[in-house]
Amino acid sequence: MIKAILIFNNHGKPRLSKFYEHYNEDTEQQIIRETFHLVSKRDENVCNFLEGGMLIGGSDYKLIYRHYATLYFVFCVDSSESELGILDLIQVFVETLDKCFENVCELDLIFHVDKVHHILAEMVMGGMVLETNMNEIITQVDAQNKMEKSEAGIAGAPARAVSAVKNMNLPEMPRNINIGDISIKVPNLPSFK
Amino acid sequence: MALKIVKGSIDRMFDKNLQDLVRGIRNHKEDEAKYISTCIDEIKQELKQDNIAVKANAVCKLTYLQMLGYDVSWAAFNIVEVMSSSKFTYKRIGYLAASQCFHESTDVIMLTTNQIRKDLSSPNQYDTGVALTGLSCFVTPDLARDLANDIMTLMSHTKPYIRKKAVLIMYKVFLKYPESLRPAFPRLKEKLEDPDPGVQSAAVNVICELARRNPKNYLSLAPLFFKLMTSSTNNWVLIKIIKLFGALTPLEPRLGKKLIEPLTNLIHSTSAMSLLYECVNTVIAVLISLSSGMPNHSASIQLCVQKLRILIEDSDQNLKYLGLLAMSKILKTHPKSVQSHKDLILQCLDDKDESIRLRALDLLYGMVSKKNLMEIVKKLMLHVDKAEGTTYRDELLTKIIDICSQSNYQYITNFEWYISILVELTRLEGTRHGHLIASQMLDVAIRVKAIRAFAVAQMATLLDNAHLLTGNTQRNGICEVLYAAAWICGEFSEHLENPMQTLEAMLRPKVATLPGHIQAVYVQNSAKLFATVLKSQEGDTDSTTTQEASQLMIDRLPLFVQSANLEVQERASCILQLVKYIQKLQQKDVEVAEEVCALFAGELNPVAPKAQKKVPVPEGLDLDAWINEPPSESESEDEQPKAIFTKEEPKHSRPRHTEVDEKELARRREARKQEQANNPFYIKASPSSQKVYQDTSGVEHIPVVQIDLSVPLKVPGLPMSDQYVKLEEERRQKVRAEKKKKEKKKRKEKRSGRGRKHDSGPESEEDIAPAHMVDIVTEEMPENALPSDDDERDPSDPHKALDIDLDKPLADNEKLPVRSHRAVEAQKSPVEDGERENAASQEPKKKSSKDKKEKKKDKDRDRKKSKEEKKKKKHKHEEKEEDLLGGQMEEPVVQSEETSEVAALPTSSSAEEVATVAAAEAAPAPGAPSVTAPDSEPDEPKDTEMEPKSSKHKKKKQKKEKEDKEKKKKKHHHHHRHSDAGGEESVQNGTVEEEEPLPPMSNYCLLAENSYIKMVCDIQGNLQDGSQVVVSVIFENKCESFLKSMEFNVLDSLNSKLQRPEGSGPHDGLVVPFQLPPGVSNEARFVFTVQSIVMPQKLKGTLTFIVKNEDSSTHEKLDFKLHFTCTSYLITTPCYSDAFAKLLESGDLKSSSIRLEGVNMPFHHLLARICFHHHFSVVERIDSCASMYSRSIQGHHVCLLVKTSAQTVSIDAKCDEPTLLGNVLDEIKQTFSQC
């Protein structure tokens, strides 16, 4: 079981938090902070596993994380999950994001956290891995987005136009999480289908 | 109206959306909290608006704020509103918000039951999908109970997308509602062999999760999993299965033997590290579970260790980490195979990665032996010096102590070395583990008597150099060791070389800066030292030393008397007075040493931590008996709390231990001794130490230490543990050399020296004789202590409830609660009691005898009574809910009491079930139309007209419920299934089994078809809007190509128009919101506005689409004619018989009639057909005569009286619109002419 999925940036700002067990908001923030402290002080080139913090889980739980450019993707899982499997799952997640957002960068996650949630929902459900095949995930996400578009129909057009105008004043930010340049080696990703 | 909508949508454009909110927060870095609070105010305003789009937008923003740590539970109700929107876009937003912030104590959750149920059975798979996803996050026991059956139905959905989600969520349902596990398990098991790999993987996932907690219940699945393991190629599934086997093998060793081979094959063949790793893990688990008699045993172990070594040597830190992790599992049972890789593991201690170092440390713990302990610890000490972070250093420190002290210091051959290690560790600055070191020192000094002299010498040095330890700060944890040092020096002061010097060290003014509890020990032990000094000078003529000592005490102690610490003060003042008195006696030359020593005489024995708990209750003592007279029963409640000691157990209980007789006690004692003898970790007390306990003067009985002369007794300054390593080497060589000479002698010596304690070490270590013949004093345990297991499972573990035997056949009472129709009286007007009798007799129970009927009625009535009581209780509450929801929601009535009423489980053979399964398997189309959705509006105008009675509300509710259920049923059983009134009544009464099964029926009729696509449609009126008709069209792709860009268009007539989105022209087509892969079908709904409904009409239309092959794509079109019958304007509306009679009497209705000849079918089938195809409901049925009712979307009443006699059916009908009636009757006629 996966207990929580957290995404935060290099400064510990949460970009997505998904807890599969209930905590109140304060505890959630504390967990995010604690996890950030645990993860951020680790060098690159060390292993991606971490015995869980005090707040989340106990001895049975592990933090499994990956660091991409400005973002940390952290999964808190128990012993029923395969460690390497989860690492691959994170990779699939990020690659899926990359496909869905076309060259994903932190800004995409900042402004479209709802979409990230929807993508995640196609991969992990209630703490259990639902789908690991990237194509399947993308198909389902696309189909739902299409449905959303058709529902908005013409009526949605002006709203889209307005938001497009608003988006023009976005501050210039470096685009690219740069997946191609991941420093973490993925063992045998192709073997996972 | 239209203008308002347009205006609304323009306003909306300038509302803040999520992106604006995020941008705003980023632009207000300084006053973020303030900005957010204004945003929340805005959101609150937005939530008050009626526009669902605005609400959804607000909820979307709240979801973001929730992530930032803001509590948004106040908006829970609005979230529910957004969830219940009919648009997928908003629904998804609502469910996401709910999944992020709902939890078990969110009270609005109970309002969602029906909404979720509706979404689960939605024809749109993504509606179902979001509902399942959301539910997985906030499922409560109530939701689980109410929805278990719905979800179980979804497990057989036609779409794998839904199936896999439904399968996965079942785990959550099991957790919350364990009763559902057994009924659902057969279907779950079925899903293990689902054709879709995703569903299969989900099923494996769920069963693995279940089996992990209660493995024994899943052993019977092992063959199935074995098959899967050898056939599956999906690594995820394989990993899960292999992990599952790891959990199962300890319970069934035979399974392990079977597993070894395929697993080894996998290890050799797979290229996926993750799979390899899990295989190795499971092989290890298997090997652990197997008895060591396996022939290929060591080969497998070797293979595992080899593979792990490869992992550890890999440059990938992750593999290294996992390799070490798995290694530690092998270590537990096969330490020797791991020990050969000591070099590698020690190497890992140098790794820059802390996780890896910690793992390596864990491994070391198990790898030590008598041979290598010193070496390993030496290495660790080096690391302690090098370590930078205090956490890691502390970790090292605890590990060193753990390693050395494990299993009663089993691996320590030289305790002087260990003491020096401990002393060396005290030089660590800023460690938090001073306490740990201190307790080790105490433990060793107390339990290893041979070492006391050495320990005391070391401790004295420590005390002398106390300034080194306390130098830094008060907070420094290391000063704890002074506590131990002072106590050891005091307690075993007879071993001190120079007690006077130590006494002086202990009374230095600097001591007053130490923590209170340490000062207290200092003071107390200075008195012991003082006694020793006196004793040593006894008989000496020169009394200067003793006088110096008392003077020193008298000088220094006042400092402690002033201490703020009570303990220190009290001890100091007592001792000070004592010393002053002694000094007086000394001046009179009185011999006092003996008396002073007597103050501290006696030996302290180590007591096991559990000793107190293990004291057996003495015979004859009844802990539950009253100590005082029990309070008399006449005493009032208020007085009872006075009996403090007896309050807890106010009842008399029989004395428990009286029956344990002498024999039994003896037997237990014997058993315990046996147990201890067999327990290698229980180090037996030597007989001598037992004696010590009974007879304090017997210190001499302790086996005398034979001090190895190669060890220097006097260490100048602080000791260096390193030198022991060298010395130890030399010693061992010497021993080895001497061994040949004195072999016989040695062996004898060993036997006598080590007593019975030699059985736990590996054989090869036998020849390493300890430097000291050491007797480790056992911790004291009370007589008759009973060995007990303290490990119990956490009672709050939710998985405990899932420990259910799954192989037993299902019992009737275990079936899942099913949403079902209430008994027939729910349909009755509660006003006239007499009519109830009537209604009961209408029940279509052909075959039941009269008395059976009677019985049934009684039962029904009973049931009804209790239900009504319940309902009354709920009534108020529900009323409120309805108001709140403004008719958007259906009331969440929990109907668990109906569990036993209607049994509709997969295993049951009721007609309903058969139909469900048949529908699920046969229907390629997605769910049936649910266009009647809004007809459960509580504010039906007709209702209020007809029933202006006090019980109006309740009736409405009942009605609504019924409709709801009807609808539900329809959806459930897809369009193949007959449903509604005729059959429905029979279902209501639970007599469905007695009826002949009804033939499957469908309202879907063929619309058009060509070689690419087939369209079938169903037309239903929309009660919510009197001018709307909803057409559900199922598109089925019949060809091998991909169909996309489908556009649906209809030529509007004056009377009927296709509703198009705003802004599109009157001739534009509607885009079908999906594409069709080959062989797939999906359903779309189109809304038409109709002016007049009295005449049937036909609309011409076209479907255009693109057929896309791999290489080409062609544009195709298909013409169709949409036929709006008058029937499609009718809506199934239930009617009470009294209201029906009134309606007929009113005289507003025009009548008409038809006769149908040659109808050859049972009457109830006939009724069922009319009900199903023409949307009627049965009002009353008496034998072969029935009255039926329906309403049009524009409120026309249509009443039928159907009679049958010998293949002739006559239908007399009344309606307020004769044209409509004529057309409906024609259509009915046509229906029956077709069959």
Write the layout of secondary structure elements.
The complex is a heterodimer of chains A (193) and B (1235).
Chain A (H helix, E strand, L loop, with lengths): L1 E8 L4 E6 L5 H16 L8 E3 L10 E7 L2 E7 L5 H19 L4 H6 L1 H9 L2 E2 L2 E2 L4 H19 L3 H13 L25
Chain B lengths: L1 H12 L4 H10 L4 H17 L3 H16 L8 H8 L4 H14 L11 H8 L4 H14 L2 H14 L5 H17 L4 H10 L6 H17 L8 H10 L3 H14 L4 H17 L3 H17 L7 H17 L3 H17 L1 H5 L2 H7 L5 H14 L5 H14 L3 H20 L5 H11 L8 H14 L4 H13 L1 H5 L9 H12 L7 H8 L9 H22 L6 H18 L4 H22 L5 H7 L11 H4 L47 H17 L8 H8 L26 H21 L1 H12 L78 H10 L7 H36 L25 H12 L18 H6 L5 H21 L8 H8 L16 E5 L3 E10 L5 E10 L4 E9 L5 E3 L11 E2 L9 E10 L6 E12 L4 E12 L5 E2 L5 H9 L4 E7 L6 H12 L2 E6 L2 E8 L4 E9 L2 E8 L2 H17 L1
Antiparallel strand pairs in B: 1-2, 2-3, 3-7, 4-6, 4-8, 5-7, 8-9, 10-13, 11-15, 12-13, 13-14, 14-15
Mean of residue pLDDT values of chain A = 80
Total strand count of chain A, please?
A: 7
Task: Provide the number of structural domains of chain A.
Answer: 1
Largest sheet of chain B: 6 strands, antiparallel
Integer average pLDDT of chain B: 73
Instruction: State Rg of chain A.
Output: 17 Å
Q: Specify the overall morphology of chain A.
A: globular
Strand order of the largest sheet of chain A: 2-1-5-4-3
Helix content bin of chain B? 40-55%
Give me the Rg of chain B, rounded.
Answer: 44 Å
Coarse structural class of chain A = alpha+beta
Oligomer: heterodimer
CATH topology of chain A: Beta-Lactamase
Largest sheet of chain A: 5 strands, antiparallel
CATH class of chain A: Alpha Beta
- Strand percentage of chain B: 5-15%
Work out the number of β strands of chain B: 15
The share of residues in helices of chain A is 40-55%
What is the structural class of chain B? alpha+beta
Organism (chain A): Kryptolebias marmoratus (Mangrove killifish)
Protein name (chain A): Adaptor related protein complex 3 subunit sigma 1
Family (chain A): Belongs to the adaptor complexes small subunit family.
Domain AP complex mu/sigma subunit (chain A): 1-147
